[in-house]
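FORM 7B - TANDEM STRUCTURE REPORT

SECTION 1: FIRST PROTEIN
SEQUENCE AND C-ALPHA CELLS:
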Amino acid sequence: MAISSPASRHCLHGWKQIARYFGLNERTMRRWEQTRQLPVRRYPGRQSSVFAYEDELEAWRDGTFQVSGDGSLNG
C-alpha cells in the first residue's frame, strides 16, 4: 500500500479519535500500542499526546504496515 503525501493524509488526534476509528475503547488502543505495535506517534515534548494517520492504521489492520528494527514507522 502506498502512503499518501503528508499534506493529503487524514490525521486522528488523541486516543479518543483513534479508538473511535476502530470502534473500540481508549484502553484497548493503549494496550495495542504496547503489544501489537499500533502505529501511533507522539508529539515532540508531549509524551501523553498522540496522533495517528488513517492510512497507516489501515495498513496496520490489513497486515501490510511494518515497523523497522530501529522502531521507526514504515508504511
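SECTION 2: SECOND PROTEIN
SEQUENCE AND C-ALPHA CELLS:
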Amino acid sequence: MLRKLVMTAVCLTVTGFMTGCLIGNNDTTATAVEEEGQATQQVYSKTSQIEEIGDCTTEAVKQLKLNCRTDKDLLRLLELVKKAIDDEKFTQAEALIQTLIKKIESLITKEKFDDCFDPALLDKALELLAIINPPPNVAPVITAPAAMDAIAGNTVTFQLMVSDENGDSIGISLENIPEGASLDGETFSWSTNEAQVGTYQLVFIATDNGSPALSTSALVTITVAAPPALPGLVLYWDFEDVGEIVSDQSGNNNNGLKLGSGGVVPGVTGNGLDCNGQTAVVVPTADLGLTDFTFSAWVYSTEIRRMPIFEFAQPGARAGAHMWVHTTGYSSNIDGTVQVNLGMRNGQWQYFYSPSNAAPSMSWKMVTMTFNSETGMVIIYVDGSQVASKSFGTSALMVIHEQLYLGWRPDYSPEGSSNTYFKGVMDEVKIYDRVLSSEEVAGASAE
C-alpha cells in the first residue's frame, strides 16, 4: 500500500488538474485522475494548475518521508520533479518522469514493485504534462517523385507519402490542378490527352492542424510527350489552328484548302473543325502515292441524314474511294451505318455497309477504313473495333490519288448546297500509305 502511495503521488505531481491529492488503489486513482482532469481542464488557468501541482507535490514528499524512507532514489527524483514544476521547467520535469518510469520498470522486473502500481498512471502523467507543456509544432513531411514522364493519352498515377512528427492530421492540396487530374487523399491520377503535350510543374502542399498550422510543399515535374506516330503517316490534320489553310502535321506538306465559314470548335482532343453544313477541306492534287491505304477520323454528326466523311475522286466524277455515314433515324435499314463505296478499274461500283447503329448521331466516333490492294480487302472499324469487311478480289481501285475531299461530295450538287456536306465536327484526320493492323487501329482509338 505504501508503494501505491508513492506511485499515486508521482502521478499527482504532474497532472495539474487535481483539486487535491487523491490516494487510493490503482483503478480508483486512474479513474479519479481522468474524471477530475476532464472536469477541471477548462476551469483552471495555467497558474492555478501549477499551484495545485505544487500542493500535490508537497503532500507527496511528505507521505514519502513518513512512509517510504528506504526509497531514497524515488524520493530524490520526485523532489527534483517538484522543483522543476515549481520553476516551470516542464520539459525538464518530463525528462525526470521518464527516468522515474525506467527505474520503476526495473524494480518491477526485480519483483520489488510487483503489484504496487498501475503503469498506465505514468503514461497518463506524461499525457497530462504534455497539455501544460506541448512540444513545439513541426511541419509535416511530404515525399513525391521529383519527375514523371507520360505519353499523351495515357494515365499518370503515383502515391504521395506524408507524415507528421506531432501526430497532427494532415491535409493535402494541389495548386493549378490540370484538366483530367484528381487528388484523392495521397493518390494523384491524371488522364492526359494529346492537347496537353508539354511540361507541367505541380506543387503539392501538406498542411497540418497544429498550432500554428504549418505547411510543406513538394514539386513534381511531369512531362507529357506526344504519342509516337505510326509509320506510314502521309497526312495528319489536327485542326488546332485553322485559317484558309489546314496545315498537315505529318511533315509531308499535304495541306488542305478550307472552303466555307466553319472555324474551330472543341474537338475530341483540343480543337476540331466545325463542319457546319457549308464547310469542307479539299486537297486539289492529293497525289499521296497510295496503293494500300488507311483513312481514320473522329466524327461527331449533329444531323440525321446521310453525309460524306471523305472521298478520293476525280473532278466531275465519283470514281474512287468514298466513306459516308448514315446517322440514326435516316432510314430504318441503314440507321447508324458507315458506308464505303469503291469505284473499280473494271468500271463497276462496289459498296457495303457496317451493321446498323455502329455510328449513331450526337456522339464522338472514330471511323477507320483500310484497303489492301493485293487482296481487295476493305475493313471498316468504329472506335477501334472491326464492324464490317469485304473482299473485292484483285480488281484495284480506279483512282485513290486525285482530289481529296473531307466532308463534301462536290459533283452531287453545286458548291454551297448543304445536301452533300457533313454536318457536325471532325477531328484528328489521318491517312497512312499502308494497311494498319487491327491492333494498331485499336491502339489509335484508345489514345
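SECTION 3: OBSERVATIONS ON SECOND PROTEIN
Residues 1-44, 111-119 have pLDDT under 50 and may be disordered.
The chain has three domains: 2-132, 141-225, 233-446.

SECTION 4: SIGNATURE
Preparer initials: ____
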